[in-house]
Write a structure and sequence with these properties.
The protein has 2 domains: about 120 residues, Rossmann fold; about 70 residues, 2-Layer Sandwich (Alpha-Beta Plaits). The protein has 6 helices and 11 strands. The strands form 2 sheets. Strands 3-2-1-4-5-6 form a 6-stranded parallel β-sheet, sandwiched between helices. Strands 7-8-11-9-10 form a 5-stranded antiparallel β-sheet. Strand 4, helix 3 and strand 5 form a beta-alpha-beta unit. It starts with a strand and ends in an 8-residue tail after the last strand. The protein is elongated, with a radius of gyration of 20 Å. The protein has about 210 residues and is of the alpha/beta class.
């Protein structure tokens, strides 16, 4: 497929090279020509100097034949504008915007624009390692109704049947990682210390009760 990337920072350049290695075509846009140095001398895609939401620039990048657009500049406003132009003007379904403000990310996620909230993701990753019993939210659906929560099983949960845990807090077990191997939930599965349980919960719960 053809992917248009706006922003040639560390994320944009890595994404462009990864997509090329997987056999896709890529056009990457940045307002600074020197940013393209991150791509490497053997970059096989198209690099364009310009403003990512300018229609002429997007046209040069092949927006009319694009299957997906990633807006990953360092500015929330620019990324949202690019995402909206891609969705509303060019009717591209696969659009992702990098957003630093978690509150704005949630709003646009509910409007159907997939977002990657850098600050929120980083915070949850750090909390997960500082507080092993912290229920880190991995994903929330666009309507903010259901979240997928990752929970590390501690001694308080160990020995309990996952079905009992589900009934106690209204969650639904999706999968479990045990000894480095992940599998879908099975009836009668008993929690063990060190398990990483992935549970679907009502988004308002935030984290699963012990």
């Amino acid at each position: 497929m053809h992917v248009v990337i706006v922003g040639c920072g560390r994320v944009g350049s890595s994404l462009a090279n990864d997509l090329l290695r997987e056999g896709h075509t890529v056009a990457i846009i940045d307002r600074r020509a020197e940013a393209f140095a991150r791509l490497g001398s053997d970059f096989g895609g198209q690099s364009i100097v310009g403003i990512g939401f300018d229609r002429d620039v997007l046209g040069e990048a092949g927006i009319d034949r694009a299957d997906a657009v990633a807006a990953v500049t360092s500015g929330d406003n620019s990324n949202i504008l690019v995402a909206r132009v891609a969705r509303e003007t060019y009717n591209i379904e696969r659009v992702v915007a990098r957003i630093y403000d978690p509150r704005r990310a949630a709003i646009y996620q509910r409007l159907g624009i997939a977002t990657v909230a850098t600050v929120s993701w980083t915070t949850t990753q750090v909390l997960r390692r500082l507080l092993p019993d912290h229920g880190a939210i991995e994903w929330t659906d666009p309507t903010a109704s259901v979240s997928l929560v990752e929970r590390v099983v501690d001694a308080a949960m160990a020995g309990r049947n996952y079905r009992d845990i589900e009934e106690a807090d209204g969650s639904r077990l999706v999968a479990v990682t045990r000894f480095g191997a992940t599998s879908l939930a099975t009836p009668g599965l008993v929690a063990q210390v060190g398990d990483v349980a992935y549970l679907a919960v009502a988004a308002a719960q935030g984290q699963v009760a012990k």
